[in-house]
């Protein structure tokens, strides 16, 4: 499938997918706030409801483009009411955002609860409903961007960080940890507290610099932050392999791509000291990759792509060969799991434009960095 086809297909789902992802990340930011404010408590998420700890349960709804109406919170309130019916010791909160409601706390009178429940009001006793509204609050909250700013400020204050940029980096680490926990099939793992979070931040292996950070910071500050955190002095002469996955868009010129290859070679390869970087050009046709290889050959750059001749089969052992004469190695996306399963690469850097590639490699550092265009990579590395 061509990159253009992928872009066209993605565009059809982008609006719904974009707001669904923002809602998901909005929930993560609420979770971060709960962890940092309730430092002594275990905070569970994606369990009974979106977030719960001890006797408190939170349901989250982020409706960025919608105006409020009682019907839009009916399902969430029924879910919370059913929880309360089974355990009346719980305190419950519906944490939501609608574009026409200013931030506020709201307690429901019994008449409004009945109105929201509609025909299902009769499923619950008057005694239960009266008790429920005493232990239930609706918190109409800020929009995504305002809350994001609040969370960044809270992180900066909590960890006494020197700048917004360092807080952004810390936020990316925390979100990555929450995502790792949220996708775990075992619900018992979807729990974290402040102490757990602090320990994790000392041993982080995965981080995602998503589009939101690029939108929040200026383009120049975003690029400088990535460069400072991952591509500064001291990283280039360690004797292990790194994989660089680069999403190639139609605007990236061959000159840009050759420049990226050249910078990665200069930063990471030293003959007889440090091995060649491994590069995967994603969404790039074989014919165009061959043009890049031809230019490198003409420039006397010694590279390996796992083959001996044009049309040869891919030979993993050739790529994994400890040959420091190779200045750079190339691999197709389909063959990356082979490198990971054989523990060949120690770090993965993915410069992505459309979607992230996550690999099942828990002990391997994975850095995902959103870019609008390939020229940004040159400024980062």
Write a short abstract of this structure.
The protein has 381 residues and is α/β, with parallel strands linked by helices.
Spell out the key features of this protein:
2 domains; alpha/beta
Description:
- The chain is α/β, with parallel strands linked by helices and 381 residues long.
- It folds into two domains: 3-146, no CATH class; 206-380, Aldehyde Dehydrogenase, Chain A, domain 2.
- The protein has 14 helices and 14 strands.
- The protein has helices at 3-37, 71-86, 110-117, 126-134, 144-158, 164-182, 194-202, 211-216, 219-230, 254-268, 286-298, 316-319, 336-341, 375-380, and strands at residues 43-45, 51-53, 56-63, 91-98, 104-106, 136-140, 191-192, 206-209, 241-247, 278-282, 303-304, 328-330, 345-352, 365-370.
- The strands form two sheets. A seven-stranded mixed sheet has the order 5-6-4-3-2-1-7, with helices on both faces. Strands 8-14-13-9-10-12-11 form a seven-stranded parallel sheet.
- α1 (3-37) crosses α5, α1 (3-37) crosses α6 (164-182) and α5 (144-158) packs across α6 (164-182).
- The longest helix has 35 residues, at 3-37.
- Residues 10-17 have low confidence and may be disordered.
What structural category do the secondary elements indicate? alpha/beta
Q: CATH fold name of the largest domain, please?
A: Aldehyde Dehydrogenase, Chain A, domain 2
**Radius of gyration from the alpha-carbon trace, in angstroms:** 25 Å
Which sheet architecture does the biggest sheet show? 7 strands, mixed
Weakly predicted, low-confidence segments: 10-17
Number of strands: 14
What is the top-level CATH class of the largest domain?
A: Alpha Beta
Strand order of the largest sheet: 5-6-4-3-2-1-7
SSE string, helix = H, strand = E?
HEEEHEEHHEHHEHEHHEHEHEHEHEEH
- Assembly type of the chains comes to single chain
Ends distance: 29 Å
Strand content: 15-25%
Shape: elongated
């Amino acid at each position: 499938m061509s990159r253009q086809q992928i872009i066209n297909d993605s565009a059809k789902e982008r609006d719904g997918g974009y707001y669904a992802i923002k809602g998901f990340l909005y929930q993560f930011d609420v979770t971060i706030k709960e962890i940092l404010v309730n430092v002594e408590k275990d905070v569970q998420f994606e369990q009974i409801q979106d977030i719960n700890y001890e006797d408190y349960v939170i349901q989250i709804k982020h409706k960025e483009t919608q105006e409020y109406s009682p019907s839009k919170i009916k399902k969430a309130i029924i879910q919370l009411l059913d929880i309360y019916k089974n355990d009346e010791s719980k305190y419950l909160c519906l944490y939501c955002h609608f574009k026409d409601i200013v931030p506020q706390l709201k307690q429901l009178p019994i008449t409004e609860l009945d109105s929201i429940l509609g025909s299902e009001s009769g499923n619950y006793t008057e005694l239960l409903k009266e008790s429920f509204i005493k232990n239930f609050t609706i918190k109409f909250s800020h929009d995504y961007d305002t809350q994001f700013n609040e969370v960044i400020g809270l992180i900066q204050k909590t960890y006494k960080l020197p700048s917004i940029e360092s807080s952004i980096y810390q936020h990316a680490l925390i979100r990555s940890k929450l995502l790792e926990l949220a996708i775990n099939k075992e619900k018992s793992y979807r729990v974290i507290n402040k102490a757990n979070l602090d320990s994790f931040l000392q041993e982080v292996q995965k981080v995602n610099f998503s589009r939101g950070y690029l939108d929040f910071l200026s383009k120049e500050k975003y690029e400088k932050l990535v460069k400072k955190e991952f591509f500064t002095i001291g990283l280039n002469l360690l004797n292990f392999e790194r994989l660089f996955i680069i999403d190639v868009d139609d605007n990236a010129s061959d000159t840009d791509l050759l420049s990226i290859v050249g910078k990665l070679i200069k930063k990471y390869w030293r003959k007889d000291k440090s091995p060649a970087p491994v590069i995967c050009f994603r969404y790039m046709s074989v014919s165009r990759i061959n043009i890049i290889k031809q230019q490198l050959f003409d420039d006397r750059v010694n590279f390996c792509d796992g083959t001996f001749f044009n049309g040869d089969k891919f030979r993993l052992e050739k790529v994994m060969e400890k040959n420091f004469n190779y200045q750079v190695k190339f691999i197709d996306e389909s063959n990356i799991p082979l490198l990971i399963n054989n523990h060949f690469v120690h770090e993965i850097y993915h410069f992505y434009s459309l979607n992230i590639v996550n690999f099942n490699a828990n002990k391997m550092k994975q850095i995902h960095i959103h870019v609008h265009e390939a020229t940004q990579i040159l400024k980062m590395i």
